[in-house]
Amino acid sequence: MAENRERPPFQIGQQKVSRRGLLGAAAGLSAGALLASCSVLQRKEETPKLGATAEEIIKQRQLTPEDVTAALMTYVPSGKYDEFLMFSSTGHGGQVLVHGLPSMRLLKVIAVFSPEPWQGYGYGGYTNEVLEGGYFKGKPILWGDTHHPALSETNGEYDGEFLFINDKANGRIAVIDLRDFETKQIVKNPLLVNEHGGCFVTPNTEYVLEADQYSVPLGGVYAPITEYKEKYRGVLTFWKFDRQKGRIVPEESFAIETPPYWHDLADAGKGPSHGWAFWNSINTELAIPGLQEGRPAMEIATTQRDMDYLHVVNWKKAEELIAAGKYETINGFKVIRMDVAAKEGVLFLIPEPKSPHGVDVTPGGDYIVVAGKLDPHVTVYSFAKIQQAIQAGNWDTDEYGIPVLPFEQCVEAQVELGLGPLHTQFDDQGYAYTSLFLDSAVAKWSLGKPYREDGWKLVEKLPVQYNIGHLAAAEGDTAKPAGRFLVAHNKWSVDRYASLGPLLPQNAQLISIAPNQPMRVLYDSPIGIGEPHYAQIIKRERIKAWEIYPEVGWNPHTQSVDPNAVLKVGDERIERRGKTVEIWAVLLRSQIRPDLIEVEQGDEVIWHLTNIERAKDATHGFALGGYNINLSLEPGETQTIRFVADIPGTFPFYCTEFCSALHLEMMGYFLVKPT
């Protein structure tokens, strides 16, 4: 039996510390000391000495009690998981970010509208087909302006199965399967060019909502700008979603034509308002650009009226019209014309304070909150009063014949909050939270009955840094908000981080909205990969992601075993059929089999690659230099690449993921013989 002897002590400076003493000293550090040392407000670069107490660390780093509290509330120890996950857009970064809360750790970047090499997205395999689904009239569009992620819902609550994200610039919607966090589909709206009023889902994800931002003639065809009133139109789109297939079904989708008002944000009703949807609009002035022709700037021309229009849509009734054939087909898409929508009780307008942004349905579905950027109030509409106004029938119409319900008959309350209200979220205590862009603040205010007895009052305002756009509360736009945390997505960071050149990161600030406590900024998180607009925060426990694919040979695009998968070592092979060379390959630590491929210039190459690993995190990459091919193959995954070997030469291929001690030896040669 080996002797249990004390090893020689470590030498640290002039002090001798035994291994046992070192472990004891480390164990003696309190959790508070470790957490305090993680505070984001690092005012002094000084490493705490071994054995320092929490008080010494706090003093050395000049931390305030608020700093220490924030650190305690946000620290997640190594190996532990965050309680919430936040999905946020990246604006013209074109992707989706996943952060953990409360740590604000960036956990994943989901590739969506832009090629992303680490995930092998857009560099061969089925992901190329996904991107091609978003091409515009055959023209590659390889970037996007993501704005509003929408988690799939069941009974008005997030179910953690799918995520949808829109592309404002190019009028597209993407579908992400949260079993493997990969984009499965991109659809291009054939009726519009730009959009902003998406993505938002109905309470059981029957439809994904989308609306244009800047009106164009339907289908984006040419028409002179001077014919704006006559030929330009808005469009409210209801994309049908098939949950079993995990795909949007264009042939079962439809749209509603509107006047050429610019649509902004949307929300779907729930509870008593289920079956209805709501969109804000701006530019009801019908202004058109033309500075060189002497017209006023659009920022002036589009803000002349005191009121714009809230669009109120009965989508259940619209479904009946589609079933009855009361639609036209434009660019292969079903469209209910606005005269039909008005006559059949599908589309109504309600005046709303000018230049609105957010339209947010309360958790119970009984109120609709509208924030007008140029009005210091939020305006709260009662769904019950809207229905009464519709039944009464005492309305006027706009110049296009759309019913305009009386403002005063539909409004429940107006609450003055501050300058530049944009977007509202809710907690589980009957409070609402609205971003104030010009004030650079979050306003907390109380909802009225049945939520609270002391309703429709401003409670508190919290400064944020700086120029907040959207905000997201934990499950704060669902039927059952979770409360506790809110994230402010601030457009400017200014002085929050070290200077790294003129282009500064966005600033996402985690805020505590714990019950019976004042709001408190807990953490600043720099976003240096784009501009997050909207976000949604879900309880982590709702996500049921796979750790490895269910079976070896899994095709992530079809979510089934690929018929060309190679299931075990020894089944790999190469076949030549005329000018076509087909390869069935396997990847395992640390081999790519077969590892020598020789073809002739001009051959069509079909290469099936299967990662046969079953261990969690045993991902392999596949890179073929010179041919712009780069794949990421997670455990069990199969992908197929197709290309023409048009460049003669010698091309090594290799695994891009450091998967084993002999990772560098995981390679082969692709030889293209000149003809």
Could you provide a short overview of the structure?
11% of the residues lie in helices and 39% in strands.
- How much of the sequence lies in strands comes to 35-45%
Would you give the CATH topology of the largest domain? Answer: Methylamine Dehydrogenase, Chain H
Largest sheet: 7 strands, mixed
Q: What is the multimeric organization of the chains shown?
A: single chain
- CATH architecture level-2 label of the largest domain: 7 Propeller
Segments where pLDDT lies below 50 for 5+ residues? 1-44
Shape: globular
Cα-to-Cα separation, first versus last residue: 71 Å
Return the domain count. Answer: 3
| Range of helix content | 10-25%
Structural class: mainly beta
* Gyration radius from CA atoms, angstroms: 28 Å
The CATH superfamily of the largest domain is YVTN repeat-like/Quinoprotein amine dehydrogenase
What's the CATH C level of the largest domain? Mainly Beta
**Would you count the extended β strands for me?**
47
Enumerate how many helices there are, as a single number. 11
Organism: Thermomicrobium roseum
Enzyme class: oxidoreductase
Keywords: Copper, Metal-binding, Oxidoreductase
Pfam families: nos_propeller
